[in-house]
Amino acid sequence: MATPTTITTLAALREAEAACTRCPLFRKATQVVPGEGKTKARLMLVGEQPGNDEDLTGRPFVGPAGRVLDRALEEAGIDRAEAFVTNAVKHFKFEPRGKRRLHQRPDAYEIERCRWWLDLEREIVKPALVVALGATAARSLFGRTVTVSGLRGEVRTLADGGRVLVTIHPSFLLRIEDERAKAAEFGRLVEDLKVGARFLKRAA
Ligand code: URA
Asked: Do 132 and 122 meet the contact criterion of CB atoms below 8 Å apart?
């Protein structure tokens, strides 16, 4: 396994990630899903882990949660093409159920083992702001369990000086059945992202 000091580009990082055996999740997943986007993106978006579509395509946030994220980014005036999009955990964790593969939450060990890659992504990209989409991303970045509702909507500073904005994971919206409640939560997600957009403008 390469050491952090020998990985200084996203291409080298992708190659190293593809050979990752740091936790057992690589055994069942189709492939690793590395982060993607501009090398020097000022904004990094961190999700939980790849879902079924991401596992099959090898790209982050291309399935239903990705479509919610894309809509929210657009409403917040953020261009996804200018950002670096990644996940706290790089392999899909699932439970087979007939022909379907049901998402399973990564556990503390898997998040911790995969933080190695997220740290390297942050080191290479050096974003001015990281948006943690949901509790798993926030846990990875803060290095401890945090409550999204207690932290969301405000830019925070990590122990290493990195700036982080916590908000909900877009898949939360997919689970809300009531249309009014769903629209209200979508609006809150957009408002959180706007806080990030304003922060980036001021930091420019
Ligand atoms: N959910 C995530 O957290 N990441 C993805 O890439 C897709 C769905």
From this structure: no
- pTM of the predicted structure, to 2 decimals: 0.97
pLDDT tens-digit profile of 160-177?
999 999 999 999 999 999
Tell me which residues have their CB closer than 6 angstroms to ligand 1. Answer: 47-51, 54, 60-61, 63, 65-66, 87, 171
**108's tokens:** 């503390």
CB atoms near residue 39 (< 10 Å): 11
Q: Which atom of ligand 1 is nearest to the CA of 61?
A: 6
Give me the CATH topology for the region 4-203: Uracil-DNA Glycosylase, subunit E (3.40.470)
70-83, pLDDT tens digit by residue? 999 999 999 999 99
Ligand 1 center from residue 178 Cα (angstroms): 23
C-alpha to C-alpha distance for 108 and 113, rounded to whole angstroms: 9
Domain ranges of the chain: 4-203
In whole angstroms, give the CA distance from residue 111 to residue 42: 24
Token pair 């990630």 in the structure block, residue? 17
